[in-house]
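Async update (no meeting this week)

Hi team, since we skipped the sync, here's where things stand on the single-chain job. The sequence we agreed to prioritize is pasted below, unchanged from the tracker. I ran it this morning and attached the output directly underneath so nobody has to dig for it. Comments welcome in thread, and please keep replies under the output.
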Amino acid sequence: MPLKVQQKAPDFELKSTSETPFKLSEQAGEPIILFFYPKNFTKVCTAEVCEFRDAFSEFRNLNVKVVGISQDTISSHHKFKKENKLPFELLSDPQGKVAKLFKATIPVIGMNRRITYLLDNDLRIKAVYENMFTADQHVKQMIENM
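Output:
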């Protein structure tokens, strides 16, 4: 079960493709989408990040930051970001600690689930969408909940 709507999102700090550590508590004041996904360069994950890429201008027009999180390395993220022309940051959570905080891991396997959170200006969860097998509904669900 994902974290609940209206719950304060847990703070964390991870390495980012911007080379600047990303600390969630420093993002307050602007809505943010955090989407957890299993693995770079896989079919559904690539489709998902490209959905966010294609909707990126709409998110920016609404002043919503978009950030993807997986257990891949920063090096892999750089390649994935470049290959797919992603305009947003990817965060590396190699041990899945942040994914666990957000209840975004598959029990026993420890791999990230495909789950997206929309956080408000105060970093409270405004919306949650989880669907492991499709990529195309995550963006739609976030836009509908803005």
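Quick observations from my side:
The helical segments are 43-54, 56-61, 74-83, 97-101, 136-144.
The chain has one domain: 29-144.
Reply here if anything looks off.
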